[in-house]
Design goal:
The relative contact order is 0.10. Strands 4-3-2-1-5-6-7 form a seven-stranded mixed beta sheet, with helices on both faces. Strands 12-11-8-13-14-15 form a six-stranded parallel beta sheet, with helices on both faces. It is α/β, with parallel strands linked by helices and 425 residues long. It contains 19 helices and 15 strands. It folds into three domains: 209 residues, Rossmann fold, CATH 3.40.50; 141 residues, Rossmann fold; 60 residues, Orthogonal Bundle (DNA polymerase, domain 1).
């Protein structure tokens, strides 16, 4: 299979946005206002560059010295480059930045053989510069380098094109790539636009993900594979009624879920009332939870499919371990799980990693071979603390606005996306 990786430069290979730093150092006048208009989408990068070019004051010697002093390449870029060579993956750099620092930095790190596409800068004398845009597109012309047009030109020669980036100029290419690794602006854009993407902090994580063979999945329960809204709300209603405290509307329940029962109760009751409140809730919940809980649509089929793929399954939930095991037995799916861990089965609940660590050990797998699937901030934090990748469910208890800042490895639109994502990996 012919595989191409198109990789952004500024903020992706280079840890700093060298184009921005060049302009902030050598441009005079009100260039920041032009940059603001670009970042807010009022103008494209090509127009911004055209206005700023006349403000640039720097000699070739000054710029060369600045590039070498300020450059900071992703420390895992060498590992990433070597991985591509070993796997026969073609690597090309696409940038809306400038050739004067891309070529210099690739050469400095012994990687001058990597092809790159970018805007060009030439010096006019007395510190002035001239900008050229050899890869601008006639479709819209907003970006100096149209990365989508480059991807389309490469498409006939490859079976698979993966895109890696972080910023505004990466958005169009990400829409047409077969796989996307994203961070910062691009990650949030992809999630909100419904574009499948994998989050990364550095290129070492891209290598790890490309190499990853998932052998185990640890599921959260509530909001991930079961619907227990009604049972939980009835239990809380019993508690609030006992203490004569007004209960929030049912539709607001999701924002309070994810943590332990104690964490749910804390905002509403005094410390000395918490233990009694927990006791009242559990007594009521015990009476109704089997009848008032159901599997989410498609959950059984997904669990069965993963089992057929010989993926080991476990549960790590803040719900009482006793309730978890009885509930999954009642629903007829307990036999699919190698381990079912819940509250009381570890020292601390999520977001601490204890339950997840225990589940990983139960699966007898390395953390790199396991993913955590959940729908709350607590799930993401627990999985990360345990050193495993987290795939968050975007239509569960916590909305995207809460999930995105936590930067899970993936945010799936729904649980049904999981088998496809695991097969693609």
């Amino acid at each position: 299979m012919r595989h191409l990786i198109l990789c952004d430069f500024d903020g992706t290979i280079s840890m700093r946005d060298m184009g921005y730093e060049l302009l902030s150092t050598f441009a005079r006048g009100n260039w920041e206002e032009i940059d603001r208009q670009y970042r807010e989408g009022q103008i494209g990068s090509r127009e911004a560059y055209g206005q700023i070019a006349g403000m640039f004051e720097g000699t070739p010697e000054e710029v060369e010295s600045f590039i070498l002093e300020r450059s900071l390449i992703d420390p895992f870029f060498g590992k990433f480059h070597d991985y591509c060579l070993r796997r026969g993956i073609d690597l090309k750099v696409v940038s809306d930045g400038f050739d004067i620092y891309i070529s210099r930095l690739l050469e400095y790190h012994g990687l001058h053989h990597i092809p790159f596409f970018s805007n060009r800068i030439s010096y006019k004398g007395e510190g002035g510069i001239h900008m050229e845009h050899p890869y601008v597109s006639g479709d819209c012309g907003l970006c100096g380098t149209c990365k989508r047009a480059i991807l389309r030109e490469e498409r006939p020669y490859y079976d698979l094109i993966t895109y890696i980036g972080n910023g505004y100029s990466d958005r169009c290419a990400a829409q047409e790539a077969d796989g996307v690794y994203a961070k910062e602006v691009l990650f949030e854009h992809c999630i909100r636009a419904g574009i499948d993407c994998t989050y990364f902090d550095h290129l070492g994580e891209v290598v790890d993900d490309l190499s990853k063979k998932t052998k185990g999945v640890i599921f959260d329960l509530d909001g991930t594979i079961i619907d227990s809204y009604e049972a939980i709300y009835i239990g809380l209603a019993q508690v609030f009624n006992h203490f004569s405290v007004p209960l929030f509307p049912f539709q607001e329940l999701g924002q309070y879920l994810g943590g332990s029962l104690e964490e749910i109760l804390k905002p509403f009751f005094a410390p000395h009332e918490i233990e009694e409140a927990k006791h009242i809730f559990r007594n009521k919940y015990r009476d109704i939870y089997l009848d008032k809980t159901s599997l989410l649509e498609g959950a059984r089929e997904i669990i069965e499919e993963l089992s057929r793929q010989s993926i080991r399954l476990a549960v790590a939930s803040n719900k009482s371990g006793k309730f978890c095991r009885e509930l999954l037995s009642h629903l007829g799916i307990d036999g699919f799980f190698s381990a079912i861990r819940g509250g009381g089965d570890a020292v601390r609940p999520k977001p601490f990693p204890d339950l997840v660590n225990a589940a990983v050990m139960d699966l007898d797998l390395h953390p790199n071979e396991v993913v955590m699937v959940g729908d709350t901030v607590e799930d993401i934090r627990a999985g990360k603390a345990a050193g495993i990748d987290v795939y968050a469910i975007g239509n569960g208890y916590h909305p995207l606005e809460r999930l995105i800042p936590e930067r899970p490895r993936r945010i799936l639109r729904e649980l049904g996306d999981l088998p496809r994502v695991l097969r693609a990996g």
